[in-house]
Amino acid sequence: MMLHDVADATHQYIGSLDGDQREHAIRAVTDDDLRHRWAYTPGTRPGLVLGELRRDQRKAVHGMLATVLSPHAYAQAAAVMALEDVLDHREGGHRDRHNGDYWTVLFGTPGGDEPWGWRVEGHHLSVNVVVADGRVSATPFFLGANPARVTYRGRVVGQPLRLEEELARELLDRMGPTARRLAVVSDTAPHDIRSGNSPRVSPSEPVGVTPAQLGKSAGEMLVDIVRFYLDRLAFELADEEFARIDPERLHFSWEGSLRRGEGHYYRIQGPELLIEYDNTANEANHVHTVWRRHSGDFGDDLLAAHYDASRHTVARGVAQNG
What we know:
11 helices; alpha+beta; 41% helix; DUF3500 domain-containing protein; two-stranded antiparallel ribbon; DUF3500
């Protein structure tokens, strides 16, 4: 049912486009350069921009997002997009930001046996979806927020990525002092997520603390944080992603200040997992978060398996006919 819903929502969007729009909206899933060329900074993208679509077309794009994302992550994504107008007002409008500045590009179309996918992307949002042989991939998955917090007399009015910070702080609180010393690997946080918008991330030497060093309560909390990031996806997809994780091989590290309101960063690593969180810019009121898979970003693992199976099928057919 999950895959059927994603395909139906994508068909609905495609069906709303006219001929000229389709020409700009649809690219080949085999265009590896374009699939791997992603960003979370402001700027134009390939495809069609929401602000120039009709109302029904914009709703169709949101329908695509809502089928892949869990309800809470879809709410986060919608809030991130809305913050563009808040940021634009704070800046006096000189960068001409708008909540319509998000682009959709399709990679192939649903139907038949060929892989397909899409990306919805703009400032602080990048959701990359590939579907092949009945399986769905959705990384890199980036969410950011600027401002990260909107307050009234010191009380938070809006903070779409609040739990990304609070859960990590709860983990630090659950650690004993020995584990915390292992977890905090630097007093200075990097200015951004270390992986940036690189097309691929290679496994780096893991640093920080492992579940075996945390104790039962903190170890469970670390797994809960990973599950929280995976639960950005619709629950059926999140379950599949969680089944790939080996909890015993996770590492958690923190960099920067432990005091609220000061720059901080954390990273969770596993053999096929990278989660990064950074909040340093704009007086620690500008958050970047990303979830990536080393061999599976942009559906590369699904596409490789699909094309490998196709070559074997062709080879068997040639052998039988020969």
